Amino acid sequence: MTNEATISTSHDDAEAKGNGLTYKDAGVDIDSGNDLVEAIKPLAASTKRPGANAALGGFGAVFDLAAAGYKDPLLITATDGVGTKLRIALDSGIHGTVGIDLVAMCVNDLVVQGGEPLMFLDYFATSRLDVAVAADVVKGIAEGCTLAGCALVGGETAEMPGMYGANDYDMAGFAVGAVERAELLTDDRIAIGDVLLGLASSGVHSNGYSLVRRIVERTGLGWDAPAPFAPDRSLGAALLEPTRIYVKSCLALHRAGLVHALAHITGGGFWENIPRVLPEGAAAHLDGTVWTAPPVFSWLMDEGQVAPHEMARTFNCGIGMVVAVPADRVGEAKALLEEHGETVFTLGTIVPRDDGAPVRIDNLEAIFAESSNR
Question: pTM (2 decimals)?
Answer without folding.
Answer: 0.89
